[in-house]
Amino acid sequence: MININVIAQRAKVSRKTIYKHHDLLARIRAHTRTATAIPASASGGDNAIVAALRAQLTHKEAEIRSLNATLRERDSTIARLYGRLDSRM
User: Fold this and answer.
1) Are 62 and 56 in contact (CB under 8 A)?
2) N or C: which terminus of the chain carries fewer CB neighbours within 10 A?
């Protein structure tokens, strides 16, 4: 977010200094208005984060499907082995 406090801290000056320079004050206020007019979801950084999270989710879903298939195979093997043990008794 762009505002006078942030600019003053980054520039290592007091807010009073910014208020004394009307040209700087006008530029900061102009940027503040344009920054608030752009929704957060439209920024490129957010899109990259969302894309990375979607890729992670897709990878995890594939991993879960693979693990579920392995689990079903093992359950099937266990059931067959128990059946063999039951038939011996």
Assistant:
1) no
2) C
Element (H, E) at 10: helix 4-11
**What's the mean pLDDT when you consider all of the chain?**
84
Place of tokens 């344009």: 34
How large is the angle between the packed helices 22-37 and 4-11, nearest 10 degrees?
120
CB 2 within 8 A of CB 35: yes
Q: What pTM value is reported for the model? A: 0.43
| Alpha carbons 24 and 26: distance in angstroms, whole number | 5
